[in-house]
Amino acid sequence: MQAPLAARAARGLSGALRACCTSAPRPGPAPAPRVSVREALGGHSSSGASVQVQGWVRSVRSQKEVLFLHINDGSSLEHLQIVADPSLDNSDLSFGSSVEVQGVLVKSPYKKQNVELKADRIEVIGHCDPKAFPFKYKERYPLEYVRQYPHLRCRTNTLGSILRVRSEATDAIHSFFKTNGYIHIHTPVITSNDCEGAGELFQVEPSSKVKEPGKNFFDVPAFLTVSAQLHLEVMSGAFSQVFSFGPTFRAENSQSRRHLAEFYMVEAEMSFVESLQDIMQVMETLFKVTTETVLSSCPEDVELLHKFVAPGQKDKLEQMLKNKFLIISYTEAIETLKKASQNFTFTPQWGADLQTEHEKYLVKYCGNIPVFVINYPLDLKPFYMRDNEDEPQHTVAAVDLLVPGVGELFGGSLREERLHLLQQRLARLGLTDTYQWYLDLRRFGSVPHGGFGMGFERYLQCILGVDNIKDVIPFPRFPHSCLL
Ligand code: 4AD
Ligand code: MG
């Protein structure tokens, strides 16, 4: 049974909350400070300190003389060993149940850990029927199996590690941009434009309006954003270097291992940039610096994935980090594919998009080093990309970064900053009225600029070697599935 909240609060609050509540002293002995498993293991509390730890039971082993318990609270991959008198055991102590343990941190006699908690009180907060719980003690499940339990899979070691890495990578990306002088922009989730022009939009209307079509809530059709780029371009007209990191939505009818209907995109836009080289330099540095930071901030989590989920990935990642990324033009890529001995389902030809099979071949051909493919045919790309004016080919200054195991990880370009060329493009596409505001950006202090977007889930797949994109996001959304 869960103890009354007031009673639990009286026993001890953590950190700042505890500090601000100490003004009204309570009778009786001071409660032991509450620490996380990570803090307990890391020697945050010196050996001999009396502490409280809360978490979920990962194993129970009751022997004649001693009771061993392992608990985890998500703060680290490692569990905290609790050593107790068997009399503290009760029948509710089972795998999966939540507990609060009070005791003294002592140096552990066991080689595997530095510290263990000698308990003098163990309280079960919430029971767990181990027979009904879908995960069993010490079992290692394939990711496909745990995916069936989106509400419980975060309690497995593997998902725990992936989600901790995700959190660290989010921080690392923010700090990369901050260190390099970028301003973070909250771009809208609801928008009236289709940045990529690919028609993969989810429309937004109040649920009450769905049954009576005609009037739009916003007076114009509104959609979930497919990219923050156009809003970032607005901001790059004032702040020079901006970035966003938010959810993006695509109604792509794809069940592939690298597509989601809702995914997170890291996007950057830089003013006063005239060459693709400068943009590629930022992409490569972002990838390498973020990855190095993640590898040093959560090495155990990365190691677990490299060991059990993707053997061989560690070496592949080292190759990616130590080599300079390669650059080939779209035209060279097509020529390479044409010469390949491999039979492709989609015959490579100039003017057609690169398919997954082509991307895979190109990365392999480049020795599994990430490769930038630049200068794509104008007709393949959205209206905003800068015209290379290289007729008869007629390409735009676009760049995609292809990486091993994943394919396209980044997409970016120089933007068309020349008013007359942009006007012609928009007129040809019948978009002049829609993008008057965008043309204004070129009328009032236009500058050469460019940027990119990186799929965050694909980034995690790439560094961790996770095969399916559905396993690197807490709650995957894809066609025919919107669980929870
Ligand atoms: O190449 P994309 O479509 O580029 C843009 O949207 C640009 N407007 C970005 C910019 O320049 N600011 O998407 C960027 C990246 C892709 O390279 C890919 O990694 C990822 O977003 N991505 C997806 N990730 C998961 N599921 C999907 N359905 C994705 N579609 C694109
Ligand atoms: Mg793309």
What would the keywords be for this entry?
484 residues; alpha+beta; OB fold (Dihydrolipoamide Acetyltransferase, E2P); BirA Bifunctional Protein, domain 2; 2 domains; 5-stranded mixed β-barrel; 15 strands; disordered N terminus; binds 4-amino-1,4-dioxobutan-2-aminium adenosine-5'-monophosphate; binds magnesium ion
- Report the C-alpha radius of gyration, rounded: 27 Å
Placed side by side, the strands forming the largest sheet appear as 6-9-10-15-14-13-12-11
Poorly predicted runs of 5 or more residues: 1-23
Q: Compounds present?
A: 4-amino-1,4-dioxobutan-2-aminium adenosine-5'-monophosphate, magnesium ion
**Name given to the CATH architecture of the largest domain:** 2-Layer Sandwich
Mean pLDDT: 91
Task: Give a brief rundown of this model.
The chain is of the alpha+beta class and 484 residues long. It has helices spanning 5-11, 15-20, 37-41, 143-146, 157-179, 229-239, 276-297, 299-309, 313-322, 330-339, 356-365, 419-429, 436-443, 456-464, and strands spanning 50-62, 67-72, 80-84, 98-107, 115-126, 183-184, 190-191, 223-224, 241-249, 262-271, 326-329, 371-377, 395-403, 407-414, 449-455.
